[in-house]
Write a structure and sequence with these properties.
Helix content is about 40%, strand content about 20%. It is of the alpha/beta class.
């Protein structure tokens, strides 16, 4: 059972303030959760509650540009490696020596990059509905270039104004992958500038060469109905990480963290205790 909890800010890379939530429990292992693009730390409420009951301490945080964290205004501040530096700031701040890293969608991209760049950082890696590259951007050079220019223009010219509070994800339970109201909520809570700066980064994201550097046991969790990163993408990811396995959650879509927390918790729990 959790023994204490608190929330607040730590200083991330280049002084960016990172809002986070900590739950302390009995086991020596921690779980660190990274949300997807447009999300925030509250997306993990059901997962964190489940693992707190099992005795795991946990941290979830608003990645830069999201939630209550700062929103830098330069493109270079949204490179995936910079998000990794923010993660390291949290790990160092709490002197965490043993933890499991869980990332959904964009959070999975940050997590796999962290595991590759820092092989001894985490003990286990869980990647949920994510990819080592964006298929639609990576396979077609002309489309990728056009999208990169579009996202660059939007990131330079749009506002950092945003809804200055965490989203209410409960009202999006059961929504489809591209539900208009949820996506709009994601963008408005993130800010147009931050959202499209990150999208610009993703047009060039390709971790193919990094995956061979991941040595820790890894689990790829995939919804069978995910239309953003379909199961064949997850299978390719699993095949490129040597010490890995895959778990397909039947009838789940890309929003598995919100829509299928019970199934997701079972999958992660099995992997951590095997």
């Amino acid at each position: 059972m959790p023994t204490s909890s608190h929330q607040g800010y730590v200083t991330g890379y280049k002084g960016v303030k990172i809002f986070h939530s900590v739950t302390m429990a009995d086991r020596p292992e921690w779980i660190i959760f990274l949300h997807g693009l447009g999300g925030d730390l509250t997306a993990w409420q059901k997962e964190r509650a489940h693992f707190s009951k099992l005795g795991f301490s946990s941290i979830a945080f608003d990645q830069r540009g999201h939630g209550l964290s700062d929103r830098p205004t330069n493109f270079e501040d949204y490179r995936v490696e910079i998000f990794v530096k923010d993660l390291l700031s949290l790990v160092n701040h709490y002197h965490i020596s043993k933890f499991y890293l869980v990332g959904h969608c964009f959070g999975g991209m940050v997590s796999m990059t962290a595991a590759a760049m820092h092989p001894s950082l985490a003990q286990r890696l869980i990647l949920i509905d994510t990819s080592y590259k964006i298929p639609a951007f990576s396979e077609h050079r002309i489309e990728r270039t056009l999208l990169s220019h579009l996202f660059s223009f939007l990131g330079k010219n749009l506002s950092t104004k945003h809804i200055s509070k965490h989203a209410n994800f409960d009202k999006f339970f059961g929504t489809a992958d591209l539900d208009f109201n949820r996506v709009l909520s994601d963008i408005l809570h993130t800010s147009l500038k931050s959202y499209f700066m990150i999208m610009h980064e993703l047009t060039a994201f390709n971790a193919t060469e990094l995956l061979s550097l991941i040595k820790i046991p890894s689990l790829v969790v995939e919804g069978s109905k995910d239309s953003v990163f379909p199961p064949e993408v997850a299978l390719s990811l699993k095949n490129r990480i040597k010490n890995s396995e895959i778990d397909i959650v039947e009838q789940a879509n890309h929003i598995i963290v919100l829509n299928n927390p019970v199934d997701l918790n079972k999958s992660i729990e099995r992997f951590l205790f095997e």
